[in-house]
Design goal:
Elements: H1 5-17, H2 19-32, H3 34-49, H4 56-70, H5 74-86, H6 91-105, H7 107-126
Helix pairs in contact: 1-2, 1-3, 2-3, 2-5, 4-5, 5-7, 6-7
Length: 127
């Protein structure tokens, strides 16, 4: 596959935000649908995430909040919670985001997000 500028730009952002977790997700997606993986890299990251107007820290906050609100996408939620920590958010701030969202999304969804955050923290502590 030809690596377009969009593709290169997208991979740079994935590496900065998600690191190895993003690599694993893209490998899994690409093993099932190379076209979908390319669309994600080029469009989501190469076009949308690279736009001016929001820095990566705030894009990660918005993305993680949306995934928590959806409540049925734990693998992606885990990747983006890790991304929040990689771009400068603290564990305490992530927990505060979940508490704040609980008012709008309900306790069951917030508790699911807390469980996922606990897994992210445990994996980070384990190395």
């Amino acid at each position: 596959m030809e690596e377009t500028e969009r593709y290169k730009r997208g991979w740079e952002i994935i590496e900065r935000v998600d690191g190895q977790a993003g690599d694993r997700v893209m490998e899994n997606v690409g093993s099932i649908s190379p076209d979908m993986a390319r669309f994600i890299v080029e469009f989501a990251y190469g076009d949308v995430w690279s736009r001016p107007g929001l820095d990566l820290k705030h894009r990660e906050l918005v993305t993680t909040s949306a995934l928590i609100t959806l409540g049925h996408c734990e693998p992606e939620m885990k990747v983006h919670m890790n991304g929040m920590l990689r771009v400068g958010w603290t564990r305490e701030e992530l927990i505060e985001v979940i508490i704040h969202l609980s008012v709008y999304i309900g306790f069951p969804s917030a508790l699911d997000a807390l469980r996922v955050a606990g897994e992210v923290f445990a994996e980070a502590d384990a190395g």
